[in-house]
From TrEMBL:
Top EC group: transferase
Top-rank taxon: Bacteria
Needed cofactors: pyridoxal 5'-phosphate
GO biological process: amino acid metabolic process
Record keywords, A-Z: Aminotransferase, Pyridoxal phosphate, Transferase
Family designation: Belongs to the class-I pyridoxal-phosphate-dependent aminotransferase family.
EC number(s) stated in the UniProt entry for this protein: 2.6.1.-
Protein name (Swiss-Prot/TrEMBL): Aminotransferase
GO MF term set: pyridoxal phosphate binding; transaminase activity
Domain Aminotransferase class I/classII large: 32-390
Pfam families: Aminotran_1_2
Gene3D superfamilies: Aspartate Aminotransferase, domain 1, Type I PLP-dependent aspartate aminotransferase-like (Major domain)
């Protein structure tokens, strides 16, 4: 029956993070003790003050369709957040609230790309970038990096990757999956290249902004010569432990924001009314309200790095943000371990699932075939046990 489906869906890859999580759930249902370190989801509950705002909204009978681009009160909260945290000045016409940051990204791709337009993706990149670009009939162009360069592209690499067909560059900082963070100086060096190509649009995915262990967060749109061509994508899923609430947003040039509003009006219309009211409260709160979660992630980062350093064959950098490590595991390629032939990162990730009962994600999904992604959005006990199992499976 596959031939009855569209070429569009038949050519689309399945999200590897969701696929691995589904496989882990299947094994758990069979009675196996699986430790899931594959999903990018905080293991905290949504803070009570946010939940209380949602309950209030329900009691106040928020139940109707919302404006396509978001409640005015939420847009104002986003504007104030951008000014407070990022020194970015937007007005209401530049803000669009969507059903998660993933929809925000899809909107941007659909309203900007024409068939054959190229989008530069510094590797590793978030698993859905390439498929979203292809769905919009664009061409993802991978720009490789490595563990030796902290998974950051250089200005020289950026310049070499640009062609007459380059329409956009997408990146995340803090990065999913590597955890690296671009400093303001590093972004300025990339901006100095991009200013020579004024038609290229920048998409800066800042969903992990507050989970940052190295200091101030930098945004590409802070630079005056980049502001009018940068789309800043953010949301509440990660820092506020609100993955299931599904609220993301953009700050963008007005013409892009209006186009996204038009696109969204024909796809989903406005985002969930109760979630939007809760997010107003989340964004108006001081960042100190969520600092306990960030401190916990920092402690877990130290734990997992220390334990990983005890495993021969893993090569990793210390992530500067988010809640992932992205070790290079290519030293295991070509080996047979406990009857498993390891040819690539996908084989290695499946080996860990089957032999160590630990779910990770292959780096192939992120544009880096030598690495795997391990989430440390899990308890210290789970992290310790997972690393113990991995070390034993590889011994």
């Amino acid at each position: 029956m596959q031939e009855k489906l569209s070429n569009r869906i038949n050519s689309m890859a399945t999200s590897q993070t969701l696929a691995m999580a589904a496989k882990a759930r299947e094994l758990k249902a069979e009675g196996k003790d699986i430790i899931g370190l594959s999903l990018g989801e905080p293991d905290f509950n949504t803070p009570d003050f946010i939940k209380e705002a949602a309950i209030t909204a329900i009691n106040e009978n928020y139940n109707s369709y919302t404006p396509v681009d978001g409640y005015v009160e939420l847009k104002d909260a986003i504007i104030n957040k951008f000014k407070r945290d990022n020194n970015l000045t937007y007005d209401r016409s530049q803000i669009v609230v969507s059903t998660g940051a993933k929809q925000s990204l899809a909107n941007v791709a659909m309203v900007i790309l024409n068939p054959g337009d190229e989008v530069l993706l510094p590797c590793p990149y978030w698993v859905s970038y390439a498929e979203i670009v292809k769905l919009a009939e664009g061409v993802p162009v991978e720009v490789p990096t490595s563990v030796e360069t902290d998974f950051k592209i250089t200005p020289e690499q950026l310049e070499a990757a640009i062609t007459p067909k380059t329409k956009m560059i997408w990146y995340s900082s803090p990065c999913n999956p590597s955890g690296m963070v671009y400093s303001k100086k590093e972004l300025r060096a990339l901006a100095d290249v991009l200013k020579k190509y004024p038609d290229i649009i920048i998409v800066s995915d800042e969903i992990y902004e507050h989970i940052n262990f190295v200091g101030d967060h930098a945004s590409m749109a802070e630079f005056e010569d980049m502001y009018d061509r940068t789309v800043t994508v953010n949301g509440v899923s990660k820092a506020f432990a609100m993955t299931g609430w599904r609220i993301g947003y953009i700050g963008a040039p007005t013409y892009i924001a209006r186009a996204c509003n038009k696109m969204q009006g024909q796809i989903t219309s406005g985002a969930n009314c109760i979630a939007q009211r809760a997010v107003i409260t989340a964004l108006e709160a001081p960042v100190s309200k969520i600092s306990h979660m960030i401190d916990t992630f920092k402690n877990r980062r130290k734990l997992i790095i220390d334990l990983m350093n005890e495993i021969d064959g893993f090569v990793t950098t210390e992530p500067e943000g988010a809640f992932y490590v992205f070790p290079n595991v290519s030293s295991f390629f070509g080996k047979t371990i406990k009857g498993h032939k390891i040819l690539n990162a996908t084989d290695f990730s499946l080996f860990l699932l089957e032999e160590a009962n630990v779910a990770t994600v292959t780096g192939d999904a992120f544009g880096n075939p030598e690495c795997i992604r391990i989430s440390y959005a899990a308890s210290e006990d789970q992290i310790t046990e997972a690393m113990k199992r991995i070390k034993k499976a590889l011994s």
